[in-house]
Fold these 4 entries.
Entry 1:
Amino acid sequence: MTVAVQDAPFALDAEVAALTVGRTDIGAIVTFTGTVRGEAGGRQLASMTLEHYPGMTQAELARVEALAHARWPLQATRIVHRVGTLKPGEGIVLVIAASAHRQAAFDAASFLMDYLKTSAPFWKKEVGVDGSGGWVDARETDDQALAKWGG
Amino acid sequence: MTVAVQDAPFALDAEVAALTVGRTDIGAIVTFTGTVRGEAGGRQLASMTLEHYPGMTQAELARVEALAHARWPLQATRIVHRVGTLKPGEGIVLVIAASAHRQAAFDAASFLMDYLKTSAPFWKKEVGVDGSGGWVDARETDDQALAKWGG
Amino acid sequence: MSEVRTITVLYFAWVRERIGRGREVIALPMSVTTVAELVAWLRARGPEYEAAFAKPDIVRAALDQSHVKPSTPLGSAREIAFFPPVTGG
Amino acid sequence: MSEVRTITVLYFAWVRERIGRGREVIALPMSVTTVAELVAWLRARGPEYEAAFAKPDIVRAALDQSHVKPSTPLGSAREIAFFPPVTGG
């Protein structure tokens, strides 16, 4: 159960190894990587900048992680969220869920992403290749995704 | 859409990069790694050996991959399955699903695992630290997992 | 002479841009007791606040770094933040 | 003189271990037309086959590398495989 908010890129192998190396009680590891897409609403992006609320960000990510551990039998979890300016193709967020069982790992990773998207205080601002820019609007589908977990 | 059956270990970063490098149309990448657990049914494992049906294995994995692509908007998928003798903690199988949207990536990766588990011709034989050995029995829960995808 | 309290107010994303600053410490009358009342009080401070809170239902709040509703009492909180719906992940 | 056909038969996992080989080419009477009939014919060949197919419902089959049911006709298939339920992944 660890979270990180960082400017630096993340590496999947290193992040998974940090959770699993030397352990033989894990049978299933699910990772989710969210990346910057090159096009948004018909506009070609030059970059995306992520702002966050230091302090609260870590607290929210840790709270979401604890919710997942209370709900599924998880051996380990990890959340890494980048901030600052990212280019199309770069990773924004990494979530890892490790369990003895694959369904728990899948469900927990999906749950972590749904909760993170609707509660962790990050905001994305896009800059188009034409210089136009704007804050990304929150999506109703994210609230709908959250609803499927109940409570 | 590629599949591999191999003795060698796989590396997450390299496998993901092979699917995604230079692309900016992907927003979500889900990976599933199945690993050898050190204990099975109360027995401590020394190793697990995977036998397969060469030729049919590749064909089945490709068929399962095509089913996923027909069902979800996927930018790329990858299945790597190891054969031979593996130690506890080692990766057995890797599935990757990349999509513009996170739910499609999660669902497709989960679907690929459920189908692979019930149709790809692999068989696991365990060897305990006490020298005892035996073929792993198929699990009813795998058939139940498959049923949730319908048809 | 009415009593006041000081509270640190943080703004993020377009709320920050509209108000023109990310952080300020304000002296708040004790009569302002809830998040919604604080929003109303801030809106009266000037056009930049009016613009930021033009649609108060959209702006979210966190009290001492926990999400709260407009009806939440400010209590003894030392920090309140206002921001648009989050868009991370 | 009855007609025969040749077909390659593969065995995997504990089916292979019980029969004692992984592959054989057999000359099959033309009267054997389905997967289930082939299983019955194999069981009559000796105790190792009897052991492998003791519970025929458990043993799975693939005809020319596609999963098939016991009722499937052998048709012009060149290869058939018998194996336990798969346990990969």
Entry 2:
Amino acid sequence: MEQAEPGVEVIIVTGEHDISTAPELERRLEAALESGHPVVIDLLGTTFIDSTVLRVLICAREEAGERSVGFRCALGETTGHGVRRLLDLTGMAGRLQAVPTRADAIAGAVAPGHA
Amino acid sequence: MEQAEPGVEVIIVTGEHDISTAPELERRLEAALESGHPVVIDLLGTTFIDSTVLRVLICAREEAGERSVGFRCALGETTGHGVRRLLDLTGMAGRLQAVPTRADAIAGAVAPGHA
Amino acid sequence: MTGRVSDRAMTSRSSGFELELAAETDNVPLVRHALRGLLEASGVPEERISDIALAVTEACANAVLHAYPRSRGQFEVAADLTPGRELVVRVRDHGSGMAPRVDSPGLGVGLPVMAAIADALEIDTPDGSGTLVRMTFDVAGPAS
Amino acid sequence: MTGRVSDRAMTSRSSGFELELAAETDNVPLVRHALRGLLEASGVPEERISDIALAVTEACANAVLHAYPRSRGQFEVAADLTPGRELVVRVRDHGSGMAPRVDSPGLGVGLPVMAAIADALEIDTPDGSGTLVRMTFDVAGPAS
Ligand SMILES: Nc1ncnc2c1ncn2[C@@H]1O[C@H](COP(=O)(O)OP(=O)(O)O)[C@@H](O)[C@H]1O
Ligand SMILES: Nc1ncnc2c1ncn2[C@@H]1O[C@H](COP(=O)(O)OP(=O)(O)O)[C@@H](O)[C@H]1O
């Protein structure tokens, strides 16, 4: 997980994540949401998530909505099958405001009226 | 389900309840909560509930808390094993503000500071 | 809450029953009553009957609530009480197959309640469609 | 996130493995990696591996999250890949037994995800304590 964009909190989640790393991701997302900046979660290099990680993502999305903070996830062809599968099974891709590239995600998160 | 106490909404739930009757119970409870009066759910003659009914009871309890409306359930020896069992399995008896008689429930629901 | 006799076919056997029902909430208590009849006639203790009724009710509620989100359908319940005092209940629908829902209208305790009460719970998708929930209950032993 | 080598004993067999692990979150990815190794070595398609990894991760997460609410404990995972290309994974804990929780810290989709991915899911309480989750996966067929 890293961050690299002024005025936007971009959290890049790479590799596998599950119950063992979900708490760390949750702290990162909480800190990002508290900054007040729009938040982007880049899942383009994520290979696997379990339901505890999905829960963290959904909560972040809801929290962003409540705070009227811009929020997007980037989810594309490079995102692992293990991520897609869980989102498809649970019908959650839509609820995560997913767009296919990091640039789209940043543009969507900073655009006014898209909080 | 019936009601019979001035200034308190007493909802007496008798017999078996499940997904087929939960919506009716939910409507009764919503109407009772909207009256603004303290609400008592009498489960002394309830022989069976499933998790959809438990959900309705838990939601009513939470709604009462949010509205600062007095709330109690009466749950005693005459309550069926089928009710107890679900409450015990889910550890929910405590969350329902359960007391052993209808009189206790009414007294608890109307007492100030017990909303 | 009207009876739907035309929606169901009931076949009694010496130690069990089979029901075929419309996936509607009003049919859930019918299953429970058939089950209760079977177990009472076989002398199963009341508390164990009530536990089993809870597990089976939860399985039927799932078939009604989750299996057919966009259509009407049927579900089947078969109960077999073996001479060895083992009860096997199968609840079968021909719906979507197990579909996890983050926003389930339910309390989310149905499957764990079934697993906690049944001595064994099996879930699969026979012939590639819908869901079969199979629960085995020891009805000779204590209510656990 | 430190490795806990001393907490586990690993026994490789030609077509499977057995792990005995402390019920701690850091051990969940270890199970997934062992499983992935087994399935990759056997030529199972990547997408099917990833599905199976999800179902097994959910079962392990439950053992870690729910089985021992008030104590520490162990869980065991056994995987067997038969020549007929059927994978059986057993996740066993010695905890509370299936305990429904209205206020689970989880998303509540673990059991349905397991049931949706596995060709069969069985849950029981062998020897009267803890939980055994047994999942059967057809690894020859499509990722379903
Ligand atoms: N027969 C079924 N068909 C499709 N999905 C099901 C079925 N039974 C259960 N499910 C799925 O499994 C989830 C968990 O079921 P359960 O533990 O009974 O909780 P609840 O029904 O209260 O949500 C349901 O929310 C649903 O997504
Ligand atoms: N190994 C276990 N031991 C005790 N209880 C369990 C176990 N696995 C699952 N449960 C119970 O079953 C419930 C449903 O599990 P699951 O569908 O995985 O959802 P979640 O774990 O997200 O709550 C859990 O909340 C818990 O109450």
Entry 3:
Amino acid sequence: MQIRYFAWVRERVGLEQEELDLPAGIQTVGDLINHLKGLDDNHAAAFADQEAVRVAVDQEHADADRPLAGAREIAFFPPMTGG
Amino acid sequence: MQIRYFAWVRERVGLEQEELDLPAGIQTVGDLINHLKGLDDNHAAAFADQEAVRVAVDQEHADADRPLAGAREIAFFPPMTGG
Amino acid sequence: MTVRPSVRVEAKDFDVGAETASLRVGRTDIGAIVTFTGLCRDEGGRLAALELEHYPGMAEAEIRRIADAAIERWPLTGLTVIHRYGKIPPGGNIVLVIAASAHRQAAFEAASFLMDFLKTKAPFWKKEHLVSGESSGWVAARDEDDTAAGRWSAI
Amino acid sequence: MTVRPSVRVEAKDFDVGAETASLRVGRTDIGAIVTFTGLCRDEGGRLAALELEHYPGMAEAEIRRIADAAIERWPLTGLTVIHRYGKIPPGGNIVLVIAASAHRQAAFEAASFLMDFLKTKAPFWKKEHLVSGESSGWVAARDEDDTAAGRWSAI
């Protein structure tokens, strides 16, 4: 699964994107976040304030309980500040 | 006193403006309208639907009870439709 | 800094891009610019032109009063109002309002406020000229415009 | 007639006058055009530039979703949205919304709606570069923007 990071989430993880093979049992966005937090200190720092991180599944806004089945690209980023 | 007319009030009166010497006793805009209505059929037609006529005294919007003392220019016109 | 509104009442056409450029040139304190352009519609092909009559002197004075009220109410960094008169064909420009501010809400509200009061307070009157060659007479004032102006407390 | 919004996400600058002209050319059914331009402020001389990061693909898709929601809600005769990314100096353009309609209320509301949702839904992030040469980091989202978006029922 393709994982993308933007803005300060990207800076904390230290990666723009990564391709991950997810272990069985990861069903939702929330499960994925818990998995990512365990990968290393950078990922843990990026998701330390989990409330401040927004998610998109296949380029549409999503919540933590969104199922991952069929998804190709998951993105994590701070609240938007465009406009 | 200078009297000016605009839009359909002007068309009904048949004049863009006229200089009138007002008889004594004309104190307010309302008095002036009553006086103008008595001048001829054109003026009477212009003020027949008096509710539809707006007034400005010295280029500021005014009501019928506005005193005329000191005023130089009174204008009558329909509700505005600019913008 | 007190903003001085730029107010013009004239027959000649205006250029939205040029007016906006002149309002923002050299400025780095503007975060939001809202422009409103009012155009002549052909009313489904019925209309050949609108003819705008105005009260010279009072038109400028009244627009300036409305502009000053907007400047008092919102923290604007610039305000331009241009209202044309004379005969204007379908697709042509009638009125332009440009409101600039540090933040978008002030710019949107000031421009909307200006338009609501221009419609109901500025001494302009529209006469319709039809493609048939006749005049269908003077455009009637719309109750909706009074209602819209009534959204704001009196100026 | 269904209006197709023109949506662009690009690094290069835009010209409000040219974009407005292209939206109205040959049209005689437009009565009102509202433009919103969002500019980079220097924050009292503190800021050297804003750097806008975006999520390519999703940025266009999300703006298109917001634009489609506006077209469904208001009787628009034209809609253009341009959002820039990259480094933008004080005084420079960030975002442009142009909404055209037969009547002014629809044009004002649609443009305001677009901006409220662009601010809160479109995947762009601003980083501040200071004149001191440092970066002061990422601009924080403002609660007022969520409140403003909350004025409209969910899209």
Entry 4:
Amino acid sequence: MVRWLMQLAASRVRLGFVFTAFAFFAIAAPATAQDVALSNGNTAWIMTSTALVLFMTLPGLALFYGGLVRAKNVLSVLMHCTAIACLASVLWLIAVYSLAFGNGGPLGEWIGGLDKFFLSGVTVDSMSGDIPETVYFMFQMTFAIITPALIVGAYVERIRFSAVCLFSGAWLIVVYAPVCHWVWGGGWLAGKGVMDFAGGLVVHVTAGISALVVATMLGARHGFPREISPPHSPGMVMTGAAMLWVGWFGFNAGSALAANGSAGMAMTVTHISAATASLTWMTIEWMRYGRPSLVGLVTGTIAGLATITPASGFVGPIGGFLLGISAGIVCFAMVQIVKYRLKIDDSLDVFAVHGVGGALGSLLVAFFADTAFGGRGLSDTVTMGSAFGVQLTAVIVIAAWSAIASFVLLKIIDAAVGLRVDGDQEVEGLDITAHGERGYDI
Amino acid sequence: MVRWLMQLAASRVRLGFVFTAFAFFAIAAPATAQDVALSNGNTAWIMTSTALVLFMTLPGLALFYGGLVRAKNVLSVLMHCTAIACLASVLWLIAVYSLAFGNGGPLGEWIGGLDKFFLSGVTVDSMSGDIPETVYFMFQMTFAIITPALIVGAYVERIRFSAVCLFSGAWLIVVYAPVCHWVWGGGWLAGKGVMDFAGGLVVHVTAGISALVVATMLGARHGFPREISPPHSPGMVMTGAAMLWVGWFGFNAGSALAANGSAGMAMTVTHISAATASLTWMTIEWMRYGRPSLVGLVTGTIAGLATITPASGFVGPIGGFLLGISAGIVCFAMVQIVKYRLKIDDSLDVFAVHGVGGALGSLLVAFFADTAFGGRGLSDTVTMGSAFGVQLTAVIVIAAWSAIASFVLLKIIDAAVGLRVDGDQEVEGLDITAHGERGYDI
Amino acid sequence: MVRWLMQLAASRVRLGFVFTAFAFFAIAAPATAQDVALSNGNTAWIMTSTALVLFMTLPGLALFYGGLVRAKNVLSVLMHCTAIACLASVLWLIAVYSLAFGNGGPLGEWIGGLDKFFLSGVTVDSMSGDIPETVYFMFQMTFAIITPALIVGAYVERIRFSAVCLFSGAWLIVVYAPVCHWVWGGGWLAGKGVMDFAGGLVVHVTAGISALVVATMLGARHGFPREISPPHSPGMVMTGAAMLWVGWFGFNAGSALAANGSAGMAMTVTHISAATASLTWMTIEWMRYGRPSLVGLVTGTIAGLATITPASGFVGPIGGFLLGISAGIVCFAMVQIVKYRLKIDDSLDVFAVHGVGGALGSLLVAFFADTAFGGRGLSDTVTMGSAFGVQLTAVIVIAAWSAIASFVLLKIIDAAVGLRVDGDQEVEGLDITAHGERGYDI
Amino acid sequence: MKLVIAIIKPFKLDEVRDALTKLGVEGMTVTEVKGFGRQKGQKEIYRGAEYNVVFVPKIKLEIAADDTLADRVVEAIQHAASTGQIGDGKIFVTDIVQAVRIRTGETGSDAL
Amino acid sequence: MKLVIAIIKPFKLDEVRDALTKLGVEGMTVTEVKGFGRQKGQKEIYRGAEYNVVFVPKIKLEIAADDTLADRVVEAIQHAASTGQIGDGKIFVTDIVQAVRIRTGETGSDAL
Amino acid sequence: MKLVIAIIKPFKLDEVRDALTKLGVEGMTVTEVKGFGRQKGQKEIYRGAEYNVVFVPKIKLEIAADDTLADRVVEAIQHAASTGQIGDGKIFVTDIVQAVRIRTGETGSDAL
Ligand SMILES: Nc1ncnc2c1ncn2[C@@H]1O[C@H](COP(=O)(O)OP(=O)(O)O)[C@@H](O)[C@H]1O
Ligand SMILES: Nc1ncnc2c1ncn2[C@@H]1O[C@H](COP(=O)(O)OP(=O)(O)O)[C@@H](O)[C@H]1O
Ligand SMILES: Nc1ncnc2c1ncn2[C@@H]1O[C@H](COP(=O)(O)OP(=O)(O)O)[C@@H](O)[C@H]1O
């Protein structure tokens, strides 16, 4: 019977309802599932994926972002990423896991409950599908770590550290927890059959939109856009990007919650999209400026990875290939538009790369999931059109909620502690003024 | 039958006797267990954990330590860590594995035998529980690599390279092999039911105490404490710490020797302790100095990880949380005490962070393992008090043995080749004088 | 029945025919094997291995090579490695996987077919043995990524970026695809029972020989050999080497295509060879120059890893130990010979370390696989002598084909776009002139 | 002709450059240096331990200028670089006996 | 005695050193500096965005030489470092009133 | 007033600073430079291959001092920095025509 349920879950993956199903298990399992046989193989893979996704933030994203700023601010960026990781972990334990995946009772369409406060009731034997619930808890936690850390790219080189801590913590509760619940925790979007295999909506759209809001409210860096110095260490950027790439195997293939064909295909399309987007970005730079750059190449990588993320469990190799090309072209264009048309100093292009990439993938999956495009097949009950409608609704609502909530949070925090350091501190650099350290003493 | 044995072993985990049981298998299995079914899932996880724990040393710990010294000594630190890793691997193959886990015959309470010299008798089919013995051999080897490498932090910037090699090799045989045997290899402490899930005693107490001895005998660095330069690369420190954190999932969750709920819970409490200790350390710095530093934040991480290590298989999430807070407070205080009261130049705080953290966790586990503190439960035959007695005995005896043996070894090595480079070499830096290389040519 | 086939395959590992068998499965399975039960544990391990091997190139090899060049060329090296990884991934999807592992029909002894163009016919359910075919595809892809990236070391600091792209792409099709097919894809060498567990021939001999050819045709760097500056960042070299070491666990133990005793033994001998070769190289330097260097130590590591690679599934711990010593001695000597006798500027010693190491291991495996040397046993139908004959044939033919094909490709590319940048660009550095970036702005 | 050598705080570089550009100075050379002086070095705290950083990061500017311009250069730097706090730095002026523009071989004032 | 200070393009260092060695110059001191001048900084492009790199990497050479040699040193540098393109750099000459070799305490020309 | 420029071996920096502090020197500026001279560069060996490192790491000190103090500064440096081995470095002295303390605008000796 259990096996039959598992197979049902597995087959529903292809129907695009996987997360509904898993969310169901996540909630229902611990109460009833002492009889679900633990799969050592799947558990091994999800623990490995957990390590890989943590590695994406620490040190992957930290180095990726740290290399893009000036030498006088490199440590502050590493500090932001690390402190956010710690804070998110503790909040996840205390309440955010429960709000995202707990039992929300009558509010269950909108938010989980507090029944799993401090993992209460979860023991060594609690199961979530055929893996231990602790492993599911940890795997999901790594997503809650990287999402607020992605926003760091919007506010580097000028934000107060106390504002980073307050905003990231509050944002997790007010934005991440509910959106995660809607999509993966059995909430209203899950009920509509929304497709978000590994976080195009939950991670990239939320972070990307919030990044745009914080960049706007904080204001541009001194000298933006003409007198900003270039990335102080493209090699560090590439190192971080490479770690993100490798870690993303855990992010996307781990989201199958099993070591099986679904995970294997997710890994394949993820990799193909990353490679294709990188080459696309490189080609654009080569044609336009005559010189392809390392920073450009790996920015393409990240764009390709963000874009495939929501689609990675639904599309086939050709879908991955086409998503990669789209990611390269669209994200490249958006970087220019945000910086030069909108004149917003979203400093490390969080919105243009993650927000736009995540939204793009979330929309295009409605088509590329179809077998006509080599996809793994839409559910029998939906068409490309109706699926697109659901995806579009999800993008709009999630973007709106992320924007509004971030705006309100930032207003409050600005009033409380102030968002921005003073001018002298900004010019001297956050490393020495906020943390009392210097990046390089060589 | 085999399955029944496995389940027995698994259930005994919760009774706090896991290592006795595993040690029993490790010794008994290869001879009799051709009929134990290999678990691919558990094997996958332990091979992954092996990679993760090797990654902790190479390059994790090497970068963590390398960033903390001055630029003129960075390569020497990387060299120490790498050379120790190589040396420990070869010695592990030749004799140390056998001394730790082999059959000691009449001396079995104190030391293993030489029956597994050069892995003799171990084939592709040899099993250790439900994983291949080669995998068990490799996993345990990575612990034997990192333990002497931890001591590096005590003697950086002034030790002779030949002394590093001689001391580390001899120390593995004289300190690591017996202590590992006592606790994990079926020796006298295992017989007493000592709890050390992943190496609070075997790894952190041995390394921490030996570090204090070597720092004392070697003497302080020129200019200590007032004229020592600050860490030359806090970013490198953070990168290494992040790798240690990720790798520690293999260290602690791998010590379950299976991909199951026990591993999942170990991973959870490990992570929570790391995050909590980091935030604790950050908060102390923020309150005391007005500026939280990156080096401080990640030192807290390592303190939290070292402290949870012995307890990671026995406590629950709340235990992890409380251990993390204790780690942050106690280790922070000890750093000051060692440097400013005791005036010992344990340069990178090996004793204060690892030794104290490991001892702290080894003692507190007697309480936090109890269900009263949300733990996984003490054995029926022990009370918190009696468990504490065993833990305290273990800490004292292991600390004493580590101190005495290290002292004797260092005396011999000092007489043979000298421990310390001459003053000019120290001022010019070990990179160029001992290894003929310079760290940065940029 | 399936289980019986699996066991047969497993047992044949010990007979030295593993790749013939696997190749057979790889080709035959997807058509017929809907009934092969998927092993979650093995799938978990091969997905993990895929991540590990990608990590070897990105950022492992990139950092290893990047630290060895001068600061003005560091980004170009990272760029080469990353761009090659992207290019190889896309080509692998389009055609190279199919050419290596597809059905070649009447040409099947020499090359696969195009039946798997763009993974056509491969679905979520396609199997390759007891793992999904997508996972096999991805695992093998990471080998196709690192092989042309290894050649980078021969042409750094003077090659045109367009030549890098053209050469690497064409080389994959003309050299890698057929050689891979001969050895692992069921081609003529597989038929002869050639032993190459993880790529001594397919990866290291092809890359090493091609490196020698490209270094010769490109000519030496300005100032070679007397006025070349030393590695600009030995710490970066060590970091990359450490990542290569850890990743190599996936390379060699992953090549068992299962998480079992064969994988465990492969991991063991791989590690032992790496450690032994490192110590050997260090000892030679210490004796000859009085100062063991970090770059030397980790070069030994890579030599030991390359040398054990072909043998890792066939030899025992003693074989690993002896291969490690041979690797250290022989590769050390060859570095001198190539640079000072042959006066070829194979800049980062690709031939001397990888080519020679891979060939050495490929030849010595004929002896060390024998139980007389503690090996896992040669097939009943061969003797050490006859096995050596097959290995020697393979080395010679593969070396010849790599050399000839590389020569022709380079001639064509030289005529088309030119291989070498002009003198001013070389002196100013490729980072700024070819990519418009500077490595360090600190 | 004079060579004006100024040691300033790093974060004042942009302001000083702007001030000099306004004076018509068309070139200068910048070096990262470490200063030792009354400003006794920042105290950096690592793991709760205070480190006396004896040497403080500074920027050294070298500007060759005609005798007439030199005085105004000195004055402009002094104004732009001053924060009124210890460690603001020094300006030293030395004589240049010859100046050459490498590209053209021009000498004297034409070389600047 | 003179101190010849030359700001040159980094990739010209080897050629200049060779030229000076031929003249019999036995020592020099090299500093990595950043230049600001007519050469308005390379435009670096990151993610499609142009960055004005105001300061261009340069090499500063300092060579102490006897008065007689100094002129030839200036000339040799000017020839070896010139590419004819903007940003080739400058040479400034100042007077040295005393020179000492630390090792021996020799002074004047003997110190060089 | 004089500007004393000294090129010394890096590991002698602390001793020289101590010696100067004893003389009453209250400030100095330090630059990391590379030296070319009789000391023909350390031979570094990588992978068994010898690299001639033509340029040797050195430290350049600049100390502005009154004419009276300057001689003692030179002497103190020469003593503290000497090891008797080739490559110990040089001291050059040039004239300063004006000195200004940026913080206060003081000039001349008061600026030091
Ligand atoms: N006598 C000196 N010679 C050369 N440089 C000096 C001298 N005194 C000070 N400096 C430089 O000027 C900087 C500022 O000097 P300091 O005494 O700290 O403050 P202030 O200039 O405000 O009196 C120092 O860091 C050092 O670089
Ligand atoms: N007045 C000056 N004082 C000091 N250095 C200068 C001055 N003018 C130029 N330089 C240095 O010379 C370099 C080259 O000058 P620039 O004006 O760009 O080109 P050119 O020398 O060909 O006229 C600058 O980068 C700067 O380092
Ligand atoms: N003519 C010179 N001009 C400027 N700097 C010099 C000159 N000669 C030597 N130097 C500097 O002094 C350092 C030491 O000189 P060197 O000839 O090697 O030894 P020594 O000073 O013992 O004779 C050199 O590395 C260089 O930095």
